[in-house]
Write a structure and sequence with these properties.
elongated; two-stranded antiparallel sheet; 54 residues; single chain
Length: 54
């Protein structure tokens, strides 16, 4: 989807441009794996005071 159209001019030359909105997440996610069975390693969040899992 085009969010804005415009024109850049350099002297007698006009160059049309179009700007698009960024709609795709391009983050890279890394997971640590257990050596023996390649299962994903997870970390549980716990309360420092009472030790309950959050």
């Amino acid at each position: 989807m085009i969010s804005r159209k415009s024109v850049i001019t350099f002297g007698m030359v006009a160059i049309p441009i179009a700007m698009y909105t960024a709609t795709q997440d391009n983050d890279i996610h890394f997971n640590q794996l257990h050596k023996e069975d390649n299962s994903r390693i997870r970390y549980k969040k716990t309360c420092a005071h009472c030790g309950k899992e959050i």
